[in-house]
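[User] At your convenience, examine this fold.
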Amino acid sequence: MPSTLTENVRKTVLENGLTVLTKEVHTAPVVTVQVWYKVGSRNEEPGVNGIAHQLEHMMFKGTKNRPIQFGRLFSALGSDSNAFTSYDQTAYYGTVERNKLKALLVLEADRMQNSQIEPEQLASEKRVVISELQGYENSPEYRLNRAVMQAVFPNHAYGLPVGGTKADVEKFEVEQVQKYYRNFYTPDNAVLVIVGDFQTANTLETIKEVFGKLPRRQEVGGRGQGAGGREQEAGVISRSLSTQHSTLSTQHSALSTPIVLREPGAGRLLQVVYPLPDANQPDVPALDVMDYILTEGRNSRLYQALVESGLASEVTASVTSLRESGWYEVLVTVGAKQDLKKIDSVLSRAIANVAEKGVTSEEVERAKTQLTADVILSNRDITSQAMRLGTDETTVGDYRYTDRYLAAVRLVKPTDVVAVINKYLTKEARTVGFFEPTQKLITEVGDKPDSAQTTENFSPGAPVLPSEVGKYLPPVDLATDAIAQVLPQEFKFTNGLRILLLPDHSTPTVTLSGHIQAGTEFDPDEQAGLAAFVAENLLSGTDSKDVFTIAKILAERGASLDFEAYREGVRIEGDSLAEDLPILLEILADVVKNSSFPAKELELHRQQTLTDLQQELDEPSEVARRIFVQSIYPKKHPLHTFPTEESLQQIQRQDVIDFKAKHYRPDTTVLALVGDFDLDKVRSLIKNEFGNWEVSGQAATLKYPPVAMPEKIVSVNPVLPGKAQAVTYMGYTGINRYDPRFHSALVLNQILGGDTLSSRLGAEVRDRQGLSYGIYSYFQAGKNSGTFLIEMQTSPEDSTKAIASTRQMLQQIHQQGVTALEVETAKRTLISNYNVSLANPEELTDRILINEVYGLEKGELHSFTDKIHKVTLEQVNQAARELLHPDKIVVVTAGPSVLAEKSIR
């Protein structure tokens, strides 16, 4: 393991105050460019809550030099780009092939100084932000958290929601947002982070050339020239850090009685928040160790007290350490019949018990190992490494913070953990929130033919010409040499087990991905949920180890292992430090061969699953997805069934044992490993563990019946009371992975809705009309079937218009096709995004695995980009004619009852 995460990081400060952090990582020909501004919701006050987030949205709207949606430029570069706003910072990031580094720098420098914030664009983007906020409002957890945080921090902006509130967003004026931009988007308030395959000296010269001429804040009449009035006018609180610390004790308050929200929803929630010190305080490492002891894994104290006892279905917690304060947040999810006051007293008693009796050295060491491994495992790809540097530099002013933090974690002792519990987790300090769901009914409006074309008065506006994109794109350096294309080694054992191994010594870690042909497609109709029951209980005990032993062995090494059932199989995901791979493989082999499914664990899992199901059926996205799939695929089709309360109650232990015996077999199992290992050693290790896994009989197979397209437009509108946002799924059956049009369909999809900022649908429905926060299209091409779908979130009153616009766009592309320039741009985007994804060990391992599962040629890992490159305009337009059917489409919109009063079209 490298001695530090920041070993070869170089910090440079330009004359205009821009802080530059560079870190060379030469494992793949990609680079990430990130600009972090030291401004977030912490700089707001009631009345202008959400202005930092609104500005983040506006930063994609174009500049004086490039009056074009920046998402289109990033997409044309093939950059995996996005942005986020947090409490202490706003960040913009893009990861690209290395020859596009300068182009990204040019775009970021342009929008640091020249962003255009125009009235019309602000009006449409405010609608988009409100749509985003309504999506959050759909979640009872979000609404409860907002109420609790407001009580914890009544006089500090940390008590305000980061994204803002609808009431405040509606009032934003152009001048306010422009002033906020001028105040905070300056080089001396920003950190530029570059990580990846570049040469530091040359790159610093380029940065000076591109960013060096931008003026610092004082030169543009900013804070340096007595801009206090300006800041208050823009709705910004400016306090010095010294006063911040001295007044922190009055910044938050605790309520003696719980905050109770009684609103439509499903499942009860208990949230407890304890104020904590800021990130630079010495207690933070001990607090994080405490959190792992309390809530991380099956052996944790609160899991034992609340979940193992059957009182709750889930307990999660997190320590948040920020620039001016922090908090510890515990969230408990319980079934509808449980008493929240009782749960709260059990929670309090469990914490008090830890404080009284202390923690063991073993618990502390395990928590420290897990915490350290989590930091290392979450910093394997270059985007994450840069995120870590940016967060540390903008939150605490020191990019080396995580190194110091990990060194301090190693020194934490049992007495330190007890000390921080006694100091911070007191009954007087905490604020408690209860979410009590009120009665709700899901009603359904049946199939309705679309009797007439919608007649909304809107024009789809001319799409931005692709030639415009080319005009505003910065020049790209000539492509540099591609790295050697290494293919994984494949081995097949006599029992049929296939393994794919790709050594990668860039980090001391290993990523494991696996697939077993035991997915939900094999669920019996009356026992939907059985495949997931089996997969999710594999770790519940084996012939030689109980559930706690398995959890403890993995936790002591900070390793993870998960099984998840989906339609076509069970996905295995695991990772560990390189030295712990033998243990990871030993546990994997033991659970797939010898799982024992103890009755007590199965019953506990059933109760948790029933609670989860209640909550899923309260989410518009989940309800829309279910009804969409069931409206396309008829009963008795392998894709039609979903778990219900009745089907979950039908599952008996013997059914679980029988399903496992029938479907878990070495000859339908594939394992892929990428990481720091020796090929021969790992091969013999796997042979030792899995060689005696026996096969009996033939593997089960399924025949997928053909499914006809709908003959007309089918509209379904399930109503979920109390929701703020509607979610729409629209589509029909599509192509499978082996269809000769697959690669053309990918290019077509990229143009249609592959990216919410640069696609045709995004440009029209989101960007121009402001009707949706996110709109995407997909060709989900499986082994046996495929689905074409478009997914969007809208305000309830905008759903009809957004659906009509979407269908109009489908009609337009179906009839008129797309342009040669759009095809070239889409191909470039897909190829670049694919190359960038292979630099991430998890995505690389998944790609190796899925190519094998689908039986694709060995070279597909590298020939995929060549196949995209060869797609022609004619092939894409033929795919548009054959695969887009605007008049034979299923449209499902789930959301509040306002929709039921309208005919969804």
About this structure: The longest strand covers residues 772-781. The first helix runs from residue 51 to 58. Residues 630 and 640 are 5 Å apart (CA to CA).
